[in-house]
Amino acid sequence: MHGLSDRYDLFIFDWDGTLEKVRYMYKLNERLNPFWKNKKSSSLMNAATRNDRMLIERNLKRLEHIEETGERRFKWILDMYMRFSKPGLQYGAVGVLDALKGKGRHIAVFSNGALWRVKKEAEELKIDRYFDSMVSAQSIGFLKPNPMGIHMIIKVCKATRSRTLYIGDMIDDIKTARGAGVDSCGIAAGFDDRTAL
């Protein structure tokens, strides 16, 4: 983030896969492609525990038949699984947050994940104190790539689009930033790999 902290006043992070490490639940992405169209790197599966794999495999058949109205149910299942699996931070995340806060920059989270889960995980990881704002796309009813959440955060933080950077790990994050008229930065250690970003 060297140099970026001088160009931007507001740093908005996606949560799952950007600040928080990718967990095995993302294997569902490949099986539920009607909702998440991006292809994932097979290396994500290597980090999964045996218990994670068994849990996912048991539930895949039930989840395969989710239709348009079932997307919310899927997100709820994903949030519940994520809530009961141990969260962890991406390497260097605390250092980046420390540096940005030390320079007096605003830091926020905009995630498709449920707000209750993201807040709880941030508390457990002891990083909740860094954030000026947390917005869930589910809570406001506009999932990414709709940029409504970014617009809300910019307003709350009294920032400008030209001095805002959105950091995410998926193509939808990049599209969200473009739709909001803000700069973006892709993190290749999350959902989408480097070639997709």
Nutshell version of this structure?
With 197 residues, the chain is α/β, with parallel strands linked by helices. It contains 10 helices and 5 strands, in the order αβαααααβαβααβαβ. The longest helix is centred in the first third of the chain and has 14 residues, at 50-63.
Jot down its keywords.
12% strand; 197 residues; Rossmann fold; 5 strands; single chain; 42% helix; 5-stranded parallel β-sheet; alpha/beta
Q: Could you characterize what this model shows?
A:
The chain is 42% helix and 12% strand. The chain has 197 residues and is α/β, with parallel strands linked by helices. It has 2 domains: 4-21 and 89-186, HAD superfamily/HAD-like (Rossmann fold), CATH 3.40.50.1000; 24-84, no CATH class. The chain has a 5-stranded parallel β-sheet, sandwiched between helices. It has 10 helices and 5 strands. It has helices at residues 4-7, 28-31, 43-46, 50-63, 71-84, 93-102, 115-124, 137-140, 148-156, 171-180, and strands at residues 10-13, 106-111, 133-136, 164-168, 183-186. Pfam families: HAD_2. InterPro entries: HAD-like_hydrolase_sf, HAD-like_sf, HAD-SF_hydro_IA, HAD_2, HAD_sf, PGP-like_dom2. It comes from mine drainage metagenome. GO terms for molecular function: phosphoglycolate phosphatase activity.
Main beta-sheet strand count, sense and barrel state? 5 strands, parallel
What's the total number of strands? 5
CATH class call of the largest domain: Alpha Beta
Please report the distance between the alpha carbons of the first and last residues: 18 Å
Whole-number average pLDDT?
A: 79
SSE string? HEHHHHHEHEHHEHE
Strand content: 5-15%
Radius of gyration: 16 Å
CATH topology of the largest domain: Rossmann fold
Number of helices: 10
Point out poorly predicted stretches. Answer: 35-48, 60-69
The CATH architecture of the largest domain can be given as: 3-Layer(aba) Sandwich
The CATH superfamily name of the largest domain is HAD superfamily/HAD-like
Widest sheet: strand ordering: 3-2-1-4-5
Share of helix, binned:
40-55%
